[in-house]
Specification:
Elements (H helix, E strand, L loop, with lengths): L1 E4 L5 H13 L3 E6 L4 E6 L7 H5 L4 E5 L19 E3 L2 E3 L3 E7 L6 H14 L3 E3 L17 H14 L3 E5 L2 H10 L2 E4 L7 H8 L5 E4 L6 H13 L5 E5 L17 H8 L4 E3 L1 H5 L2 H13 L4 E5 L17 H17 L3 E2 L2
Parallel strand pairs: 7-8, 7-14, 7-15, 8-9, 9-10, 10-11, 11-12, 12-13
Antiparallel strand pairs: 1-3, 1-4, 2-3, 5-6
This protein binds phosphoenolpyruvate and manganese (II) ion.
Length: about 350
């Protein structure tokens, strides 16, 4: 249920409504907007008495939210959400490029990559410390040491960074170092992990599972908001299809669909979405043209020596070209590259 407050409702009235909702055994989520304040009510404690709520001072009306994902839905919050990640805004007018290696391999590798990302015009760094690999024999990441090097790369360049967490232990560790926590495609439906990072104070990059429907993605995001973390950015990273030409198939259709159904920002990851270096640029541009809020791409100072995903990692020069082209396409759709 959504409780719509009078435009001039006082903080006290809003607080009183929240307390009443909590007294009834539900959770209350304050959703301020430019034209109204709304209070989202969630919880699985049975129906709530509308008449009681509508009799409280400052309340205009209550509304049923028809979608299963309540807080993620545009019905609940008509205005776009902008997520601040270490000073970088995701979801505003400007589009953001996040880049970096698949895995953090050494101090020198990640600091060099960060400098190249910055030089190319990227706003954020990525790098895996905990790697979910298809083969148990593949490189699994350097763990906390990698997080420390990411911190050094941030100190050298000023770029905030996102890194993937796999479980409770890695989430607790990464929270101490990272600017944003990534829930990877394989964990999109790990509801225990989602509930844990919902309690984190860091923004979350939630990647779509390779076989997840849009509704499943939005419900996964709902776990985060329902748990109290409203700083969520979605990411389309390609899905499984009958087409086996590329690693995955970018489902660009979800970009306008997310914009219609939800207020959350959405990025794409054309590196994992295609699995081929040569396809990253065109799919990045197509994503921006389709209305996404930015892209996350893999790059490596020396892709031929990468310990993971080298074949889909851009050379530093290619990243530069990609960012210049993203800027031009962003302008063609009345946006701009975030600088
Ligand atoms: C990644 O971004 O490093 C990654 C493993 O991606 P995905 O979870 O989308 O496969
Ligand atoms: Mn990768």
């Amino acid at each position: 249920m959504l409780i719509i407050m009078r435009q001039q409702a006082t903080d006290e009235e809003i607080r009183a409504v929240i307390e009443e909702v909590q007294r009834l055994g539900h959770s209350a989520h304050n959703i301020p907007g430019s034209t109204r304040t709304a209070i989202g009510v969630t919880g699985n404690n049975g129906p709530i008495d509308r008449n009681l709520i509508e009799s409280l001072p400052g309340v205009v009306q209550t509304m049923r939210v028809t979608k299963p994902y309540k807080l993620v839905s545009r019905e609940t919050k008509p205005e776009d959400t902008t997520v601040d990640v270490g000073g970088v805004q995701i979801g505003g007018k400007d589009v953001v490029v996040i880049a970096g290696p698949c895995s953090v391999e050494s101090r020198e590798q990640i600091v060099t990559a960060a400098q190249q990302v910055k030089e190319a015009g990227g706003r954020m760094l990525r790098g895996g410390a905990f790697k979910p690999r298809t083969s148990p024999y593949a490189f699994q990441g350097l763990g906390e040491q990698a997080l420390r090097w990411l911190v050094e790369a941030r100190a050298e360049t000023g770029l905030p960074f996102v890194t993937e967490v796999l479980d409770q232990e890695s989430a607790v560790l990464a929270e101490q170092y990272a600017d944003m926590l990534q829930i990877g495609a394989r964990n999109m439906q790990n509801y225990v992990l989602l509930s844990q990072v919902a309690r984190s104070h860091k923004p979350i990059l939630l990647k779509r599972g390779p076989a997840a429907t849009l509704e499943e993605l939005l419900n996964a995001a709902e776990y985060l908001l329902a748990g109290g973390n409203y700083r969520v950015v979605l990411c389309e990273r390609g899905i499984r299809s009958f087409s086996d030409f590329s690693r995955n198939t970018m489902d660009l259709n979800v970009i306008p669909a997310v914009k219609e159904l939800s207020h959350l920002p959405i990025l794409t990851d054309p590196s994992h979405g295609t699995g081929k270096r040569g396809m990253v640029l065109p799919l990045a541009l197509a994503s921006i043209a389709a209305g996404c809020d930015g892209v996350m791409v893999e790059m490596h100072p020396h892709p031929e020596h990468a310990m993971s995903d080298g074949y889909q990692s851009l050379y530093p020069q290619q990243l530069k070209r990609l960012i210049e082209s993203v800027d031009r396409v962003a302008q063609a759709v009345s946006r701009a590259l975030s600088r």
